[in-house]
Amino acid sequence: MKPLVVNPGGRLGVEDIVGREQEIRRYWKILERQGLVLGAERRLGKTHIVLKMHEMGQDGFVTFYQDLESVHGLTELVRAIYRSVEHQLSRVKKAKRRAVDLWTTVVPKKVGSLDLPDARNNWKGLLGEAVSDVLEAVDPADKVVLIWDELPLMLYNLHKREGTDSVIQLLDLLRSLRQQHGSRLRFLFTGSIGLHLVLRALRMAGNANDPVNDMHQETVPPMVEAEAIELACRLLCGLEHPPAEAEPLAKLIHAAIGGFPYYIHHLVDRLGALDREPTAADVTGAAEALVHADDDPAHLAYYHQRLASYYAPEEVRLALLVLNAVASQEEATSMENLLNLARHEQPEVREEQIRDTCLLLRRDHYLTLERRGGVTVHDFRWNVVKRWWKENRL
After folding, report:
1. For residue 184, what pLDDT band results from cuts at 50, 70 and 90?
2. Mean pLDDT, range 345-361, rounded to an integer
3. Could you report the per-residue pLDDT of 115-160, keeping only the tens digit for each?
4. What is the mean pLDDT of residues 19-29?
5. pLDDT averaged over the chain?
6. pLDDT tens for residues 283-339?
7. Contact at 8 Å (CB) between 272 and 235?
8. Helix (H/G/I), strand (E/B), else coil: 15
9. Is residue 100's pLDDT more than 70?
């Protein structure tokens, strides 16, 4: 078993991305027929999954990966598309991409039928032409997959910078392009904000369209137990003072953290700071430290902080009410008990408000809904987050 270097939050080489084969096989099957939207909380491994797909490839597909987190405008998006496929574009199309890059500073030139100084007003034509250029640059027998990482964050930034209409027009154009090039063009969107939050904001602004209902939407699951244990084992073996028996400690790590690779990296990183061989007691202590550490190395406070960024004030109030109630219970809690706990704090709260809030929190990966012993119950998706919430928010 090849040892791995601990790297919490860093970009991994494809050879260091453990597992995820089951998910990748499924995602390729979906892309055979339609586009795909992958959502999950940040640091669960979405980017590494799509990078592994991009680097390893699949017969019949050509992929282009773009990180859209830093894209804040529509013309920036067009430039990003050309940059991502530059190595496969013809010399003419490369020249066109460079012209688009420099359109604000050069003497007026043409991009197709469009004058560059008008590019900001004609971004739809430029984007459509960019996608057509990508398709032309690839063997007609292959499908083209444009992997757009953190699309919702780009849309969120675009919404703030250029307004609601620009986001609506972009999503409608992307849907039109998927329909126009349906036999060959696929989009794979990922996002940790949640595309549903962006679409909800657009609906609140009066847009009734559902611009991604032609795409398949899935939540990226945690690593399966065997892969999580393998990851923990390989990280433990890569420590300066590795344990004599890594697997028992790896199983303890999985029991404490679950299949969340980011947290596994952080926990093993704390074990590596001991300057000696770690023990089972050290694993327990390191798991507790992730919850109690003043510097919050695993950034668990983000689960609280993000609410104010993406929820309306009334939604924040209700979300905190529900999350506090669920965190106060040792076990998963029924809706009846959750309502009683919420009304104990705020007697005026209505049942429908609590139910709607639970649904929103499930879509944002805070809560899960399961059926146990004939009763439907809610609990935190991640036990480590529940422990942090209980210790720091109650």
Report:
1. very high
2. 95
3. 444 556 678 887 888 888 888 888 889 999 999 998 988 888 888 8
4. 94
5. 86
6. 999 999 888 888 888 889 999 999 998 888 999 999 999 999 999 999 999 999 999
7. no
8. helix
9. no
Rg, Å, the chain Cα set: 23
pTM of the model: 0.84
Find the angle CA(33)-CA(30)-CA(68) to the nearest 5 degrees: 100
Question: Cβ distance 287 to 252 under 8 Å?
Answer: no
Residue located via tokens 């904001």: 201
Report strand pairing: 36-39 vs 185-191: parallel
Residue 169 backbone dihedrals phi, psi, to 5 degrees: -65, -40
Residue with tokens 């709607």: 356
Cβ pair 242, 277 in contact under 8 A: yes
Q: Which helix (H) or strand (E) holds 10?
A: none
Residue among 138, 134, 207 nearest 166 (CA)? 207
Element (H, E) at 316: helix 313-327
DSSP character at residue 120:
G
Residue 346 and residue 318: Cα distance in Å, rounded?
10
Residue 115 has, within 13 A of its CA and on its CB side, a CA count of 4
DSSP 8-class letter at 332 = -
* C-alpha of 234 from chain center: 25
Q: What is the pLDDT of residue 246?
A: 95
Nearest-angstrom CA–CA distance, 231 and 18: 6
- What b/e sequence results for 143-174 when a residue is b if at least 16 CB atoms lie within 10 Å of its CB, and e otherwise? bbbbbbbbbbbbbbbbbeebeeebbbebbebb
What DSSP string describes 340-354?
A: HHHHHH-TT--HHHH
DSSP structural state of residue 258 = -
Q: Which of 30, 52, 14, 25 is nearest to 143 (CA)?
A: 30
- pLDDT of 71: 84
Selection from 141, 185, 191 nearest residue 33 by Cα: 185
Alpha-carbon gap, residue 188 to 154, rounded angstroms: 14
- CA-CA distance, 391 to 309, in Å (whole number)? 23
Q: In this structure, are residues 310 and 302 in contact, taking their beta carbons and an 8 Å threshold?
A: no
What tokens appear for 107 in the block? 């003497």
**Using CB atoms within 10 A of its CB, is residue 92 exposed (0-12), middle (13-18) or buried (19+)?**
exposed
pLDDT tens readout for residues 46-62: 999 999 999 999 999 99
